[in-house]
Each structure stands twice: as C-alpha cells, then as structure tokens.
Amino acid sequence: MLLLKGDTIFLRALEPTDLDFLYHLENNPDVWEISGTTSPFSKFVLKEYLENAHRDIYEVKQLRLCICNLNEEVLGLVDLFDFDPKNKRVGLGIIVLNTIDRNKGVGGQVIGLICDYAYKVLDVKQLYVNVLEENEISLHLFKKMGFQVVGVKEDWIYSNGKYKNEVLLQKIKDNVH
Fold this sequence. Notes:
Blueprint: E1 9-13, H1 19-26, H2 29-35, H3 43-52, H4 57-60, E2 63-69, E3 74-84, E4 89-96, H5 106-120, E5 126-132, H6 136-144, E6 148-159, E7 162-172
Parallel strand pairs: 4-5
Antiparallel strand pairs: 1-2, 2-3, 3-4, 5-7, 6-7
C-alpha cells in the first residue's frame, strides 16, 4: 500500500526519468516569481540534483516529491523545505504545472497527504506556506485545508517592476480538528 496516495493522485520520489519535466518546470519564467529563481538551470545541473535527490530530509532539510495522476503522469511537484526538526516545523510549496490539471481536487489531496506525512512521519507540529496576496485561488485552498493567515509580508516580492505582498499561513497540529 502506497503511503502517499489519494483518490486520484499519488506522491512519489523524483526519478532520473523526471529530468525533462524538471527542466521544463525550473526554466519556466512564469514560476520564477514564486520559486525565487533568477536564471535558467542546465540539464547537467538538474541531472546532478536528481542524482542527489535521494538524500534524507534530515540532512538536506528538503523533500521534493512528484505529484502524479493514477496513469503515472507527472502533474507537478510538492516541496517540504526549511525542515526544522528541533522546532518541529517545515515549509510547504506546491505547483501543478498545467492549468488543465488545476481545480480538480489535486491540490487538496496533495495538502492532505503531505500534512499527514509531516505530522505522522516527520513529527512536526506545524507547516507553513507563503502565498502571493493576489493568488486568491491558492489562499482559498490553503484556508479550506485548515491553514490560518498569520501575517502579511508587505512588498516582499519584487517582480515585473512592482512589489507584491506575500501572505504567511500556518497549520498547527494542536489546532487541527
């Protein structure tokens, strides 16, 4: 039985065969704003990354998993980042690349699976996300999944000649009903 499986998706570790998908994603300027990327990645660098992607979250403080549909097609990625086992917290990021795969319950399934994994396996107390204030769909999704707005970072992201606010949301295990 696969631990990270939902109704229509599952999460799996990165594989060498994900190189082209990762290359396309990491070099897509449309996602650079949220990823903090400022320049393209070579296939060589991404291949090296994939060769080291098996390293333990306790060592590298990050875990990246592919979001796949039941036909095993990769839809996107979910990242746990800035893992802090001492303070029992971890950041969460999700991207579903193609708009045709959005608004079909994928995000909710991913959030549910990854929160469950983080609480039960990594023993964290809280997860947090950073969402651009203008991204109303993501804000709605995370709130629906039990995350609460705890602050707004004003003028946090500079993109296309203007500053944007970023909303910080948390989901604390003791507050989960």
